């Protein structure tokens, strides 16, 4: 009898890379023309006219620094060092809460609110790393993988692909495959990170889409396990991630403003990539990441479970001065913090400032529901 695992060949199109696939993927990335161009534009913008000279030098440095990486674990160590540097240079500190209660030999399904494309799962990973716990397999939409080099980068960092582009029967088949992959990964004690909904919360309202929870259950339903029992097998842990300042706030406001004005918004080809870079390199102020207890209650429907996850995220979203000022609840906020938020708005076009204010006020309004 063949034992089904998350390494089965039927998952090859969505699973992360294995150790034996790492060296070739790294070589493809270092040889990629677009990667080298992006490094020149980011690090040596004023010297871009010397790209013919910089390109071979950059490739040499990349190979010297990363060419000897042979395993996913070695790469994760580099990512951890990068996160330490990013936190030091681009934040005013991060507080991790609840990670000490997790066990190293259990696969957890972390369901998180979603504010930043790359940083949300990276922060959960770093919290796990700091507590000597295994890092997660990260769910990422195929809309972010328009180029092979992006796929290489994501799959190297333990990302697996969520098919969002298929339609009809093909989409149902892809969702069933994804559900099976998540079940088997958890069974093998590989933790999973997935956002509570498709796309970031651009209006600041963190709400769980029951459709995500229905997807989880597709595998359990096939095994004829009742929903309330299957939920307990998934070891679901809700996560609330709070940013004092979001480097992507202006971009989100612009998108919402355009939708309100014209009814639609068309992303540019590399807008998601720009959002990732901006989220990593931009100033974020203070950050708070809290993981909850494993959900063990009986929930008969995805809607009931979604409401429970929302309650945790809303009640545990850390309300920074930026949130309180935006919500008009600033009686205890310092003059300095009020000025910081005012300066934040100054760099944003007047018609879009209202959307930024609503974005920061939403967590305050959501937390009030439970008071």
Briefly characterize the structure.
Helix content is 52%, strand content 9%. The chain is built from 15 helices and seven strands.
List keywords for this structure.
371 residues; alpha/beta; 7-stranded mixed β-sheet
SSE layout and pairing:
Layout: H1 22-31, H2 33-43, H3 51-66, H4 72-90, E1 94-97, E2 109-112, H5 119-130, E3 137-141, H6 148-156, E4 159-162, H7 168-187, E5 192-195, H8 210-222, H9 227-233, E6 236-243, H10 249-262, H11 271-281, E7 287-291, H12 302-316, H13 321-326, H14 335-346, H15 350-368
Parallel strand pairs: 1-7, 2-5, 2-6, 3-4, 3-5
Antiparallel strand pairs: 6-7
Helix pairs in contact: 1-3, 1-6, 2-3, 7-8, 8-12, 10-15, 12-15
Molecular structure report:
The chain has 371 residues and is an alpha/beta fold. It contains 15 helices and seven strands. A seven-stranded mixed β-sheet has the order 1-7-6-2-5-3-4, sandwiched between helices. Strand 3 (137-141), helix 6 and strand 4 form a beta-alpha-beta unit. It is globular and about 60 Å long.
Sum up the overall morphology in one term: globular
Described by strand count, sense and barrel closure, the largest sheet is: 7 strands, mixed
Strand percentage lies at 5-15%
Oligomer: single chain
| CA-CA gap between termini | 54 Å
Average of per-residue pLDDT values: 93
Taking all Cα atoms into account, the compactness measure Rg is: 21 Å
The low-pLDDT segments are: none
Helix count equals 15
Number of strands: 7
**Portion of residues in helices?**
40-55%
The structure class reads: alpha/beta
* H-E order: HHHHEEHEHEHEHHEHHEHHHH
Strand order of the largest sheet: 1-7-6-2-5-3-4
